[in-house]
Amino acid sequence: MSSKIKILVPVKRVIDAALKPRINKTKTGIESQGVKFSINPFDDIAVEEACKIRKNNKGLVESIHAVTIGSTKAKEVLRTALARGADTSTLIEINEDKQIEPLAVSKILKKIVEKEGSNFVILGKQAIDDDSNQVGQMLAGLLGWSQATNAAKIIIENDNLIKVEREIDGGVEVIEAPLPIVITTDLRLNEPKFIKLPMMMKAKKKPLGVLKPEDLNVEINDRLETISLDVPPTRKAGVMVKNVDELISKLKELEKQA
Q1: Domain count, the chain
Q2: 157-172 average pLDDT score
């Protein structure tokens, strides 16, 4: 294999993580009009980690390519990735009102991996809008590559061996796998640095290509239908009790009501 690592970082444009999502009037999705959008936080961590890997392993990383799927408005998240340190980027353009499912996303990313000659894919474990947590695993399956999910630490052992630490209940799991590999990021992996204005300005001069799914011979078929969305019911307020006897009495009362 090549002694160089070519990193692909998929990113997604989502409603800003600081906002509380609202269900639209038709109850078929999240209200997207008049709200702020930004890069998916888990994907931002992935971009930061890709840049850290290059910085900490001089001469090992040949390139970092960012890709997103969305309308022309999604170019803003590619600019964020470019400002953070990605070299080039690609927008896979679809209609703004089109919701693309994880399997179709994975098929498109597979084509981009092949087009760019990537051997290392790092992306967020999930997007905060649909919380599917499926794309990384599906992509690794389609490619037949190694995979490591929910990475809390990534160590490049050499040009063909990656060590990933994952937080699990009661400890840390360590995985070693060869390239090529797909890694999904957890929140503890790093904290993305603030992007200064000069970096955003430089990002505007970096390559940003535009393709459509049909350019990659990928058909987007809807396999799922959202029937309706609704907010969770309001939880009842708790009751303070003075002693154990009162607690037991309350529990028996609730048991009768059930």
Answers
A1: 1
A2: 89
